[in-house]
């Protein structure tokens, strides 16, 4: 594969080349990996590389996430913006499934020439999901998309992962009674820059307004973050079906982003994220040395020797470590 | 140091040699580590190595843990058993403090010739606390102690660590109103084989009985474990001050242990723990390669190159991994 020409086509915004590039970074083959690293370096070190707004979006099934992304994405493309949608689903690494298995969930957006939708990679190793997702985000950014939406499921670990690759983190919730407020983990609440209560329409409108007030109250109890202006994190109601509240939510996101850019927190956070991913990559790379078929065989054999008492865990670990070398 | 003679003295039950052996395994020096591994291998692979009952004990400050250990330990030595008490406190790795800083908290037990009390090692690295604690348990076992009590604080991570090195896990609680029941994390509840409500004496006796009933109810809601007979996990009241309920609790512990020995779950669990610690040791050993002063310097330099955008996280990680070798 000609990496130089692929990089140029990705940088020109060609969606088919972007797809090919993402397939390349998702590959587990060693020669593909080498090409992928070269591609990423080439794109990242261009002068004047474009910068997208990276928006993480989490929400449990049933809150209307696909409908929201379709409506929100169409609103953005309607304003002349180019929008990429990526899904990050670590659970699909085990199940082989995908939360964006096909594009039929976002029929309109998938036909929009200013939009790009990419399902979660399936059958990759858990540690690899993070790196591949992060590289896919960087590729979309290099391809000149203005907004990259990174969708994930509400299971905790994936939220942390996505918030470490996003500039903004949105939590999408459904209208609910007061008791159900407890269902959102405090850790996820603390990651959110904005909580959007979807389905604020029809019979659910009043409930949505109450739920929004409840969360606004809960957010006020959290420690204010130094990188945020007054009023953030913020709770708002939206209706993806009736297309209400979406422009308002987008304005708030832009206001928050502008504030962070001016204060230097935007760039500071990106630098911090880059350091974080570097350290994670090193750790995962080290642990991947246990993931060759030879190492797995040694591990299994030594673990059995330890289990039956022929060796101590410490002694067996030393033997294993000397085999791996370094 | 003559490792062969130290191993013999430890195996003969000499408490001073046991202390010296534990100091050796706690040392961070490379030559000490080598000797420690040799010592552990030597003791572990003896024919007819004795086996202790390893009891993990957790409880937040204020529940009367020291008083309980002193009373429970004295009861055991009164029955002719030899008892070792170890403390595991990962937080002391940071603070340099220790939850068993001196033996004055257990004045009687510390003077008992059939007891051995060892405070938590201080100023060790977090990952190292687990390995050192586990090796200290094995040394006490090799020294012929019948019961090894492993005390920890109620902070979650250390409970998991201790339950992975114990045959039985006890949770010690104080009498409390119904609202406070929520304070015990579900994960810690699920680890417990027995919950002991301490301070069932004087004014608190009635409250202790009610608290015990509450926890008994909560335990029944947990999934029954296949390795347990009916009635376990179990909640009981004790009074460390009045020495009541301790014999009963010990009888229940023995009954549970006998049941697990007969069913094979006792040995099965030990084998599973050995495999677990082997894998943990290998992982920690790999990650320790990042903990040399040279590696720390390389990491810092590359992290900065990534943060300012001169390198991608992926590329910098590859450079770092090739430096570490392997």
Structure commentary:
The structure is a homodimer of 326-residue chains. With 326 residues, chain A is an alpha/beta fold. Helix content of chain A is 53%, strand content 11%. Chain A has three domains: 1-45, Single alpha-helices involved in coiled-coils or other helix-helix interfaces, CATH 1.20.5.170; 50-263, Rossmann fold, CATH 3.40.50; 292-324. Chain A has 14 helices and seven strands. In chain A, strands 3-2-4-1-5-6-7 form a seven-stranded parallel sheet, sandwiched between helices. In chain A, strand 5, helix 9 (186-191) and strand 6 (194-197) form a beta-alpha-beta unit. The two termini of chain A are 33 Å apart.
Content-based structural category of chain A:
alpha/beta
Which residues of chain A sit in consecutive blocks of at least 5 with pLDDT less than 50?
93-99
CATH topology term of the largest domain in chain A: Rossmann fold
Q: How is the largest sheet of chain A built, in terms of strand order?
A: 3-2-4-1-5-6-7
Main sheet overview of chain A:
7 strands, parallel
Shape descriptor of chain A: globular
**What is the tally of beta strands of chain A?**
7
Number of helices of chain A: 14
CATH level-1 class of the largest domain in chain A? Alpha Beta
CATH superfamily of the largest domain in chain A: P-loop containing nucleotide triphosphate hydrolases
Multimerization status: homodimer
Q: Mean pLDDT score of chain A, rounded?
A: 87
N-to-C CA distance of chain A: 33 Å
Q: What is the domain total for the residues of chain A? A: 3
Task: Give the helix proportion of chain A (percent range).
Answer: 40-55%
